[in-house]
Amino acid sequence: MPKLAKQTLNTAGTSPAETIPPQPSYRRPWWSALAAAVLTLVLGGSVLGVQLESTGITTTVRLMGMDTWGWLLAAALAVFLHQLVRPQIEEWRARTRKPSRFSVPDVMSGQKRQLWIMLAIGALLIFPFLSNRSAVDLATLTLIYIMLGLGLNVVVGLAGLLDLGYVGFYAVGAYTYALLNSYLGFSFWEALPIAGLMTALFGYLLGFPVLRLRGDYLAIVTLGFGEIIRILLNNWTELTGGPNGIARIPKPTLFNLEFSRRADEGNIAFHEFFGIDYDPALKVIYLYLLALILVLITLFVIYRLLRMPIGRAWEALREDDIACRSLGMNPTGIKLSAFTIGASFAGFAGAFFAARQGFISPESFTFIESAIILAIVVLGGMGSQLGVILAAIAMTLLPELAREFNEYRMLLFGLMMVLMMVWRPQGLVPLKRPQMELDRG
Amino acid sequence: MSEHVEDVTPEATLAGEELAPREAMLALEHLTTHYGPVQALNDVSLAVGQGEIVTLIGANGAGKTTLLMSICGDPRPTSGRVWFEGEEITGTPTARVMRGGLSVVPEGRRIFTGMTVEENLAMGGYYQSKEENERSIEHVLGLFPRLKERFQQRGGTMSGGEQQMLAIGRALMSRPRLLLLDEPSLGLAPIVIGQIFEIVEQLREQGTTIFLVEQNAHRALSIADRGYVLEHGRVVLADSGKALLANDDVRRAYLGG
């Protein structure tokens, strides 16, 4: 191509051998680096460098010690240097980045998969006996969130209905058990199915008028529902005790054996029955195992539902509403079933929560709970069961592990969310169907 | 059969012969449909006889899709009646209409792209028992061997023609006696359109009545027994397919001179 070479020669003034792709300019971004450093110093200084002290009715501003300011200066310097060399870093990364390879989804054979599931369940069963009490307690909390996440996943992830008031159903479940127990003396096991049914009924009653709405409108109405439930519980003092909540909710029993030091009248304590010493850890372990069983049942039920026509209809409805109607399906009915079923899991979780805590008040059912459960579903990858489990673990464990950072916890939380949206917007384990399937024949 | 059928005679007059609602598989009588204040259909009457291919042609915005959807009950016609197999279905909920021996392939295919061919088909027979569903899938795969090759493939990854086959196959899952097709040729290559129209003729031979809404007037009229021309929400012409193909007005307006 002599012509082209000549042209290059003319325009760029270099010999053809030296024609290389244009290089990024190496103009040092002094100003932007300086601005970033100053910003870091100002923001960091106002957050960390000063402290407000209240003496009597006046508030005085006190500067923090030298070492805090030293760290702040170091941070500003680090930001400055990083901004300065960022173009080079980016260029270096672009050069060294390997071309992405095709990733083939793992298709585990049925047997191998079963083996893994069995191993995981086995490990989870042994775990409380090898671990300490606080870890088991935390695991129980995680299991509650897994259950809530799985339930909401049916509504949001599978049926595609954005529900911001899921905590309302959780509250209905918890209060159903608490009220049935304190007024009518129902035990946990008697109240559990009623709590599930009651919540399903609430889901049905709410779903019936609102499911013709879609997207944002549905989200707002469900948000309102969650708040209504909480405010109702807060103000209906004669029935619910209002903000004082309901205390002394009994723990679940094992075939009428209680896990307390001294059993209530007519009941026998577990340790007395077996003639062993009283160990408060046993109660924690029992609660953990109970939560584990509830989660496994939830997983199994949803797994089965997904493989039934109704589960596929949820997905079909999320994909194309009009096509569903053209096939003679009734969209409202299908949405309602997802809403009702999703709600009932929150009811079971709520009843268990009430039993575990022994005390509930409307404060436990604020919007932030709905947000956390929704975050679990989104983080996990909409519709994916494994994703929801992993996300629930992350969302309950990370705040605990980050306890030392205390006030920065929400900051870390937000950071994690931002990073997730940048790197894995589809969630940890997105719902993915195997593209290739071996003949199961 | 209810008694009022006797005294109503839909004025579906075509080429000199009258089709009473009892004989017609599908009959529309003076159907008028509005979208809010906008009138989309104006006093439309037409009939589709058992075993026929009847086509409805018309330009963009003439009301073809509205007419098809009015039959299904969404939107509800403001006045007029729809008869299917001698029974009035005006005002019947869409879901019930679609389960009563009538099936529609909506415009733009609307298959479930994230689902496999198998799952798409299974959704078409949502209200069938498991065995019935499996038999229907066998039946559809017999009609469309191509879908058998793609059985585990996701709908969205297939070609336009295959997706159209899937949409038709899905509609056939409920074993309809009358199939409503809304622009099956939309966005397809001419050779693929040919295949789709062959399939439509084949379906008729197997006993399914076809009501075909098309913009591709030439193709549609050449396979149709009879045709209607819709303009601004009104039926302006009704004749046999051949006659319409030869009609000067139709040639000028829809067949490019």
How many domains make up the 3D coordinates of chain A?
Answer: 2
Number of helices of chain A: 17
Oligomer: heterodimer
CATH topology of the largest domain in chain A: ABC transporter involved in vitamin B12 uptake, BtuC
Structure, described:
The complex is a heterodimer of chains A (441) and B (257). Chain A has 441 residues and is mostly helical. Chain A folds into two domains: 22-53 and 61-87, no CATH class; 131-256 and 283-423, ABC transporter involved in vitamin B12 uptake, BtuC, CATH 1.10.3470. Chain A is built from 17 helices and four strands. Chain A has helices at 2-12, 30-49, 66-96, 110-130, 133-158, 166-184, 188-210, 215-235, 237-240, 270-274, 280-306, 309-319, 321-326, 331-357, 367-380, 385-401, 409-423; strands at 50-55, 58-63, 257-258, 268-269. In chain A, the strands form two sheets. In chain A, strands 1-2 form a two-stranded antiparallel ribbon. In chain A, strands 3-4 form a two-stranded parallel ribbon. In chain A, helix 5 (133-158) packs parallel to helix 11 (280-306) and helix 6 (166-184) crosses helix 14 (331-357). The longest helix of chain A has 31 residues, at 66-96. Chain B has 257 residues and is α/β, with parallel strands linked by helices. Helices cover 37% and strands 27% of the residues of chain B. Chain B contains eleven helices and twelve strands. In chain B, the strands form three sheets. Chain B has a six-stranded mixed sheet with strand order 8-9-10-5-11-12, sandwiched between helices.
